[in-house]
Write a structure and sequence with these properties.
Layout: E1 6-10, H1 19-34, E2 38-42, H2 58-82, E3 88-92, E4 109-113, H3 117-122, H4 134-149, E5 152-155, H5 158-167, E6 177-180, H6 194-203, E7 212-217, H7 225-235, E8 242-247, H8 252-260, E9 267-271, H9 275-284, E10 287-290, H10 299-306, E11 311-314, H11 319-323, E12 328-330, H12 335-344, H13 348-361, H14 367-378
Parallel strand pairs: 1-2, 1-3, 3-4, 4-5, 5-6, 7-8, 7-10, 8-9, 10-11, 11-12
């Protein structure tokens, strides 16, 4: 039975190809519909940016800005004024779109904050590991200005909520409906039949005769891929081991560093794997390594756990929060500690215990739980 309540989700600008944020909008939308709540997604208008090949650099970037920050606010304001939305809640799916809140009814609008990394980077916090340009600093301060005014915010981790409160300590927090709602899985992740997984990875030319460590993510400095290379260099002194990087390809600087360590023959790359390939990688890796210096949540950590991979991760929050204690955590500046952690995983009892606890931890991130928490936020 569809209730009278209606939810309109404000998604991200599609030409920017922010895949995780697009998946998040679809995740919420499908969850609300499955819960019997009428829901739809409004995507920012594609007008000028649709003619550009890319919207993250050059002329295309400015065309995208025009669509996002001038055209769509006009469209949004017109839609809200034209139609009656008395029984409608508005939810902005990404905090980077906080300026849109200005055009929505304040008492019936909310937003998800996935992290405050870029905001803190724009304010000069070095531990964000994401410095901003002059324009970036302006944009992040603008985003922060509108985000602080939001009455209802869902933070995907306790760390993000705490860091945000530190930025607005002079505000009247008692009147705010700010709470933590962990992300759920945005796709199905389960251990794959190993024979099938091997067939998939053989097509990717993954050498399965040598155990491989897996990292999934981008090439941003805060992802700390350099530690992965240092870790493999240490381990290779005593055993055969490869490193597979899935997601974004390595930059020239890291490739040069890998050659300096003579690791070029130990590196495997799978650029932008499809879902089946990703699950196969999680299933067959000897361990999943997540040494990030800064995260808002860290989806790959629980994806690996759900596929039965033992996890070694940074001891920096929110990684321990998300892992639920079902991972080995170390200082992300100490490659030797990560290497020692992997060596400890050769103890079969420890490995099996981590994998078991990882499966148990994943029960915290079901979609129904997240959707229920969002409906409670709106209430």
């Amino acid at each position: 039975m569809v209730t009278e309540e209606r939810i309109i989700l404000i998604g991200n600008y599609l030409p920017d190809k922010q895949e995780s944020m697009i998946r998040f909008a679809f995740l919420l939308n499908s969850g609300f519909l499955n819960a019997g709540v009428s829901s739809e997604i409004w995507w920012p208008t594609r007008l000028f940016g649709s003619k550009a090949k890319v919207t993250n650099s050059g002329t295309g970037k400015w065309l995208g800005y025009f669509d996002k920050y001038i055209v769509f606010p006009l469209v949004l304001s017109w839609r809200v004024r034209k139609r009656k939305f008395n029984n409608t809640r508005f939810h902005v799916c990404d905090h980077s779109n906080a300026p849109y809140l200005k055009y929505l009814p304040a008492n019936r609008s909310s937003i998800t904050c996935h992290d405050v990394i870029a905001i803190r980077g724009g304010l000069g916090y070095s531990d964000s590991y994401q410095p901003a340009s002059k324009l970036g600093r302006f944009l992040q301060n603008w985003i922060l200005h509108h985000l602080k005014k939001a009455r209802s915010i869902a933070f995907v981790s306790q760390l993000s909520l705490n860091q945000f409160k530190d930025l607005v300590e002079d505000e009247v927090l008692e009147q705010k409906n700010w709470r933590v709602i962990h992300n759920s899985f945005n796709a199905d992740f389960n251990p794959m039949d190993r024979t099938k997984a091997k067939e998939i990875l053989s097509k990717e030319k993954i050498n399965l005769e040598v155990p491989f460590l897996l990292h999934v993510g981008s090439d941003l400095p805060r992802k700390n891929r350099k530690l992965l290379l240092d870790m493999v260099a240490i381990l290779r002194q005593e055993q055969k081991i490869n490193l597979c990087l899935a997601g974004e390809g390595m930059n020239n600087g890291l490739l040069a560093y890998a050659r300096a360590l003579n690791l070029q023959n130990n590196l495997l790359q799978v650029v932008k794997p499809n879902h089946q390939t990703l699950v196969a990688l999680y299933t067959l890796c000897d361990a999943f390594i997540f040494p990030s210096l800064s995260e808002g949540f860290g989806w790959p950590l629980i994806e690996a756990q759900a596929c039965g991979a033992p996890v070694i991760a940074s001891n920096v929050e929110p990684m321990p929060e998300v892992s639920g204690g079902a991972a080995l955590h170390f200082d992300p500046t100490q490659a030797k500690d990560f290497a020692k952690g992997y060596q400890d995983l050769q103890n079969q009892n420890l490995r099996e215990e981590l994998i078991k606890k990882g499966f148990e931890n994943c029960s915290r991130f079901h979609k129904k739980q997240m959707v229920s928490a969002y409906l409670n936020l709106y209430n």
